[in-house]
């Protein structure tokens, strides 16, 4: 279980920490001016207070210094610097303490959030990423901070595009990182991620730190060829010689993101006009309206409905969703019911299909969530449950089931459609 704490250890010089004059000389570049950064942050339309995610690397430290100066110029509260210590390297605690000292030296409050507990043996990077975002979000919510500023750069955007292109990503993946986005964990969608450094390259950030005489930490994993991102980074010079520069890639992701936003708007419109989404965890789809919409919009709308109502991390495979669309828009298609992605679909008549959680999948997943007083937890990735601070003890949420349905009694309010069957799948 992830726990957070403030780091009070005295800073030590880490073996991986170097002063600017000891760093590898960056490509010729100028420091980022205050005016250029101010314009970039102002353009995002996000309001302070901010938390800044600071690993101690050049990009995040430059972000911290620039954001702190932005707040000081406007006589606003300094940002809160947050460092996540994953505990995956022996020197990580000392590095976090060093970052804390640097933050305090420029007048910025700092906290270290520590990922504790048993670490997974597989998919460690994905698990560490989720733990990092969860720790950041929990602390921001405690502090009343709604915006986390991160140090993603123009180079990160280019590398992300190339990695996703190599994996065969579609429009969503190739649209790249948005300058402002909802938090990546569904239970913290009220928080925002802001990326004011996307217009700037890594060389500009290292030049900025050298200008400020600010040391930074070099993570040895950034040179480890085992990681796909490092392999892509080393291939960048060859690609740039062929004209595939970071600026060109950024322009491409911008065009693709505009196309995705247009499709997303059409998907939202289709769902709003053709789907009756009930708070009980089911939806009624008007199939005739679906049948007249563009195919890509229908596919995306159905994939979104399946993911939301099935409690899945990701939507089903494209080919499975496409076959389901063919069944959905054909009024006399057999069989009368289908299941996909933890969702049951039942044809109620020639014009309406019911979409709800599949009982067998719910029984297999058997979701249980412990909710502490004053916190919110996502149950079955479908229902966000909040326990007031005034609660005397934690509670456990589990599926209601037939026994729970019997216990609530005959006077309980039930869904209008398949009342007892759908109610049994509620928390």
Give the CA-based shape.
Answer: globular
Q: Tell me the strand percentage band.
A: 15-25%
Distance between the termini: 22 Å
Main beta sheet strand tally, sense and closure: 6 strands, mixed
Structure, briefly:
The protein is of the alpha/beta class. It has helices spanning 34-42, 58-73, 92-105, 124-143, 154-166, 171-174, 202-212, 228-241, 246-274, 287-292, 295-310, 318-329, 359-365, 401-408, 419-423; strands at residues 17-18, 50-53, 80-85, 110-114, 147-149, 180-182, 192-194, 216-217, 275-278, 282-286, 337-340, 343-349, 352-357, 368-371, 376-379, 383-386, 395-398. The chain is built from 15 helices and 17 strands.
Q: If you had to describe this structure to a student in words, what would you say it looks like?
A:
The chain is α/β, with parallel strands linked by helices and 427 residues long. The protein is 43% helix and 16% strand. The protein is built from 15 helices and 17 strands. A six-stranded mixed beta sheet has the order 4-3-2-5-7-6, with helices on both faces. A five-stranded antiparallel beta sheet has the order 9-10-13-12-11. Strands 1-8 form a two-stranded antiparallel sheet. The longest helix has 29 residues, at 246-274.
């Amino acid at each position: 279980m992830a726990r957070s704490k403030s780091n009070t250890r005295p800073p030590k010089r880490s073996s991986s920490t170097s002063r600017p004059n000891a760093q590898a000389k960056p490509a010729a570049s100028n420091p980022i001016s205050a005016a250029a950064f101010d314009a970039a942050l102002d353009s995002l339309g996000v309001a302070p207070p901010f938390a800044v995610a600071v690993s101690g690397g050049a990009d995040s430290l430059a972000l911290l210094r620039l954001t702190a100066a932005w707040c000081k110029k406007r006589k606003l509260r300094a940002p809160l610097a947050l460092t996540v210590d994953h505990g995956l390297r022996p020197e990580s605690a000392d590095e976090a303490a060093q970052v804390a000292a640097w933050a305090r030296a420029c007048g910025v409050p700092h906290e270290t959030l520590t990922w504790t507990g048993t670490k997974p043996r597989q998919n460690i990077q994905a698990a560490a990423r989720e733990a990092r975002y969860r720790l950041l979000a929990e602390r921001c919510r405690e502090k009343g901070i709604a915006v986390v500023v991160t140090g993603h750069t123009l180079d990160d955007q280019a590398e992300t595009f190339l990695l996703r292109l190599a994996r065969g990503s579609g429009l969503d993946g190739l649209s790249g990182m948005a300058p402002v986005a909802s938090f990546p964990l569904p239970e913290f969608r009220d928080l925002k991620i802001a990326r004011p450094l996307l217009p700037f390259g890594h060389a500009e950030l290292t030049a900025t730190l050298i200008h400020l005489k600010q040391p930074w930490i070099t993570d040895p994993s950034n040179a480890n060829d085992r990681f796909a991102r490092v392999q892509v980074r080393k291939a960048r010079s060859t690609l740039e010689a062929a004209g595939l520069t970071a600026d060109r890639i950024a322009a491409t992701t911008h065009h693709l993101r505009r196309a995705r936003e247009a499709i997303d708007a059409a998907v939202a419109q289709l769902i709003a006009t053709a789907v009756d989404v009930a708070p009980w965890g089911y939806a009624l789809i008007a199939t005739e309206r679906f049948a007249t919409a563009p195919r890509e919009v229908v596919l995306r709308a159905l994939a979104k409905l399946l993911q939301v109502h099935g409690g899945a991390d990701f939507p089903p495979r494209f080919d499975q969703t496409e076959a389901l669309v063919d069944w959905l828009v054909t009024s006399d298609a057999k069989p009368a019911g289908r299941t996909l992605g933890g969702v049951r679909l039942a044809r109620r008549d020639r014009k309406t299909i019911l979409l709800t959680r599949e009982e067998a999948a719910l029984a297999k997943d058997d979701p249980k969530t412990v909710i502490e007083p004053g916190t919110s937890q996502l149950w079955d990735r479908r229902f966000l449950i909040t326990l007031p601070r005034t609660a005397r003890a934690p509670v456990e949420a589990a599926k209601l089931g037939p026994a729970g349905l019997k216990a609530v009694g005959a006077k309980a309010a039930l869904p209008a459609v398949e009342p007892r069957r759908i109610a049994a799948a509620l928390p």
